[in-house]
């Protein structure tokens, strides 16, 4: 679903967005930022954001589409994460590891990658940690977790380990630009890191007892 | 070796560091920051830093100790990385994976951890990427690389993969504070991530051909 533009029903004035529209859009973004930061993604409703912003919920949907798209707008995510997440939904569980690494590299190495790096730096350097946490935990990781959860293992630690591996790959490849990782081709990284991600998701991940001397 | 204090020979004035001393110290730090950023760690000499700062090389050693300690002062590293690196030197290669994970967790989870997190956020969010790269590549990773390099494999990609894993663990555990990783006990992380680091260092890390469909 593509977010609807604010000028879908009312023609935009030649000099840009009408002040009233622009004001409402900004108010919604500001309210959403506070709600998402304080309550996370799941517990934030479009209705609550609309109330905080003093607008009708329909206007929130009108400007931003789904709640996930509203979140993406708040963190200024340069691509719709839904595209990558859908590719992950479609793949059989034994191929999740390689698919995840390949899908993320595809986005990071694309023209949209620069925007993602800028976002990561802003989030880490600035004060948007709560938003980063909500994005990773409730949007990205939860989507993978439901694929691997069993009655014995809810998979929370497993997807956390994947986040620890992949966030470090983003950091070293795109932010710090560490030579051997920055210039490694995607196939090499899929071959080396894919099996790690697969092990974290479905393999033997050891136990504290086994690791003690 | 502990860095010598600036007041080792001349008693400090009761109101604080003497203006002349403080000025030289700041000049050295400023010159070192520029050299390390532009030329990396290896190619920067104490002599060149001293020349840039307009002081005698002996004064650089006097204030900061070794070149590595000067670097640690430039990036405001809260602990002497040498302590951790020496623990890594001492361990047999087949135990490097677990040892690395345990040694880094020990520092990050210690009272000095807050300073390391602050440094990581400052480096990533700000413009100190070149310093972060020099620190990782030339100080930390090089020290591990010489342990695992063989005539067939210089180990550069291998230590890069370890950096990608461990920087992501720091990011998720201490910076983003992602629930399952933030609260996992050290033993669990050593048991789950140790084998990954060991595989990256000495195991089968796959090849692009093997990963292609």
From TrEMBL, chains A, B:
It comes from the Bacteria. The keyword Electron transport does not apply. Gene3D superfamilies: Homeodomain-like, Tetracycline Repressor, domain 2. The lineage of its organism: Bacteria, Bacillati, Actinomycetota, Actinomycetes, Mycobacteriales. SUPFAM superfamilies: Homeodomain-like, Tetracyclin repressor-like, C-terminal domain. Residues 22-82 form the HTH tetR-type domain. InterPro entries: Homeodomain-like_sf (IPR009057), HTH-type_TetR-like_transc_reg (IPR050109), HTH_TetR (IPR001647), Tet_transcr_reg_TetR-rel_C_sf (IPR036271), TetR_C_16 (IPR041678). Keywords: DNA-binding. Residues 45-64 bind DNA. Residues 1-24 are annotated as: Disordered. It holds the Pfam family TetR_C_16. Coiled coil: none annotated. This is TetR family transcriptional regulator. The keyword Disulfide bond does not apply.
């Amino acid at each position: 679903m593509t977010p609807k533009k604010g000028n879908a029903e009312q023609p935009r004035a030649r000099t840009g967005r009408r002040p009233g529209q622009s004001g409402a859009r900004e108010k919604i973004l500001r309210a959403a930022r506070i709600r998402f930061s304080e309550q996370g993604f799941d517990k934030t409703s479009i209705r609550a954001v609309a109330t905080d912003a003093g607008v009708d919920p329909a206007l929130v949907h009108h400007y931003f589409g789904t709640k996930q798209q509203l979140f993406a707008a708040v963190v200024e995510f340069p691509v719709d994460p839904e595209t990558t997440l859908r590719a992950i939904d479609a793949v059989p569980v034994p191929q999740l590891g390689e698919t995840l690494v390949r899908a993320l590299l595809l986005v990071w190495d694309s023209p949209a990658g620069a925007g993602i790096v800028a976002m990561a730096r802003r989030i880490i350097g600035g004060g948007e940690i709560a938003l980063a946490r909500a994005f990773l935990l409730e949007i990205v990781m939860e989507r993978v977790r439901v694929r691997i959860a069993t009655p014995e293992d809810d998979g929370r630690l497993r997807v956390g380990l994947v986040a620890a591996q992949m966030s470090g790959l983003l950091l070293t490849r795109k932010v710090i630009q560490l030579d051997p990782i920055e210039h490694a081709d995607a196939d090499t990284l899929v071959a080396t890191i894919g099996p790690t991600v697969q092990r974290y998701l479905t393999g033997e991940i050891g136990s504290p007892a086994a690791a003690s001397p």
